[in-house]
Amino acid sequence: MTALGIERSTPPTRPDPPATWTARTLAVLGDSTAVGIGDPKLGGGWRGFGPLLAAALGAEEHNVSVNGARLADVRAVQLPRALAVRPDAAVLIAGMNDTLRSDFDPEAMRADLTDIVTSLRAVGTEVVLVRFHDHARVFRMPASLRRALRTRIDRLNAVIEAVVADTGAAHLDLDAMPGAYETTTWSVDRLHPSELGHRMLAKAFAEQLVGRGCVQPAPVSLVCEGGLRVGPLAHLAWLVVKGIPWLCKRGGDLVPYALGIMLRGHREPPCGQLAADPVARP
After folding, report:
1. Other Cβ atoms within 10 Å of 205 Cβ, number
2. Coiled-coil ranges per the record (predicted)?
């Protein structure tokens, strides 16, 4: 109350901005997307979002990801390697390989992911997870299989959301990322990001870390210039050289399982329920 009898309102308080910090080391954990598949280098091998993100942060990258890795693999093999360098920041992309297997177990996946995140945060690492998009909107498949896979992805995302809520980790929602469903975002196989897609990931991951106070000395460019451009003939070559052999190799596990989840699709638990699938373990 003032001398004139008029009460002045107190201006609303704003939360303090996060303290700034520098990412000197960046760990990249996960599966084939984390490896960089989809963004081929002219001299051979893969680049991916990891080096692009590290360059933007001015960090040294330690990529411990492995093609085909599941969350249990990340916990058992990749996590100790990442902890050894005590990274300032870490990005994890994993879980999709779990959705394609008959022993899909959301409870076990939640335990694995929780341990990964809490172990990294215990050494001072800022962790960014990924919430997955609808793969069926990019990779065409029969409607029944699309519904079954969508249910699996929803349950995987429920695991990720629960761990984010429990641990306070940052996360990137691929479903809401601008351009996520554009064809130019995806490589020839429609399963992995293209060079542009990896650049978009690097930019989005940087934004997540900046939101947590990380300093970003340089921007991430979305101009594709370093990767190998893929034309129509490359699509045909991929189908003959990679696609068909991959299908034959995985047929013993993936094809029978795909038929199984199509038949069981109506019995899958609702989205967000983390109970394991009612299938026999191999």
Report:
1. 26
2. none
Q: Is residue 2 part of a domain?
A: no
User: Hunting for tokens 């107190």 — which residue is that?
Assistant: 10
Alpha-carbon distance values, 69 to 26, 137, 199 (Å): 19, 23, 22
Q: Domains in the chain: how many in total?
A: 1
The CATH number of residue 76's host domain is 3.40.50.1110
**pLDDT, tens digit, for every residue of 12-59?**
444 555 679 999 999 999 999 999 998 888 888 899 999 999 999 999
User: At 146, which helix (H) or strand (E)?
Assistant: helix 143-167
pTM: 0.78
| 35 domain residue, yes or no | yes
Query: What letter represents residue 139's amino acid?
Result: F
C-alpha 26/C-alpha 74 separation (Å) is 16
List 41's β-bridge partners, or say none.
Answer: 227
Whether 155 is in a domain gets the answer: yes
Where residue 133 falls among pLDDT bands split at 50, 70, 90?
Answer: confident
Q: Give the phi and the psi of residue 98 in degrees, each rounded to 5.
A: -65, -35
Question: Which H or E element spans position 261?
Answer: helix 254-264
Distance CA 168, CA 126 (A): 10
Please check whether residue 151 lies inside any domain of the structure.
yes
Residues 169 and 163 sit within 8 Å (Cβ to Cβ): yes
